[in-house]
Amino acid sequence: MKINSHSLTLNIIIxxxxxxxxxxxxxxxxxxxxxxxxxxxxxxxxxNYAGKELIRNKYTSLVPLKSLYLYSITQNNNEKIxxxxxxxxxxxxxxxxxxxxxxxxxxxxxxxxxxxxxxKHLRTIVNAFTQMKNCLREIQNSSSxxxxxxxxxxxxxxxxxxxxSKLRSIQHEIANKFENTVAESNKxxxxxxxxxxTYENNQKIxxxxxxxxxxxxEKIINVRxxxxxxxxxxxxxxxxxxxxxxxxxxxxxxx
Length: 255
What we know:
Blueprint: H1 5-42, H2 47-50, E1 54-56, E2 62-64, H3 65-74, H4 79-115, H5 118-138, H6 143-155, H7 160-181, H8 186-191, H9 199-209, H10 224-227, H11 234-249
Antiparallel strand pairs: 1-2
Helix pairs in contact: 1-4, 3-4, 4-5, 4-7, 4-11, 5-6, 5-11, 7-9
């Protein structure tokens, strides 16, 4: 059977064009998805705080995350820049979330230790976790899955010892996760030089990292009382304050 060489060549050219178009469409789809996710994030309540976080880039010293986002817009939504800004934003939000989780657990632990009112303080913690989870789920931040697991675990505990043990366990877990997230942080390296991976060491590291947190709110939680191992009724007030700050920062669109 004789094959028409012109027809074969034409078919090959058509196949190459189709293949190229498919690649272009896939790239545009991926980029479009990232761009849409970034816009969704910027419209969320969390952006009001995460957007003010200072980020170090290779061209300048420290700039607010919001400035990087505005820069990406001026660059005609360059794919690499948009992708980078989106990833950095998710990293910043995850860090802020980890700090809130840690603070809820350490103050919840101290509050239960002080007045033994497990049900009240556990409800405060679980409600705050749920608030964060719902908001983070809308912007597709993976911390929502972690929070969902914590909520499930805490909701199935009844004895005061089990609850306190779990809160302590979450603190330790968050400290390890935070280390993996900010491994290049000079502040973290400073406090982690003598790391022994114990609960006490992780707690000390995290407490020094969250001094001055949460930034960009009118109220800042002073953790010096925990650092100095003081326990009185102020730990209950601070637990409630942290919960209120979360209600302000993490507002789900769909309630």
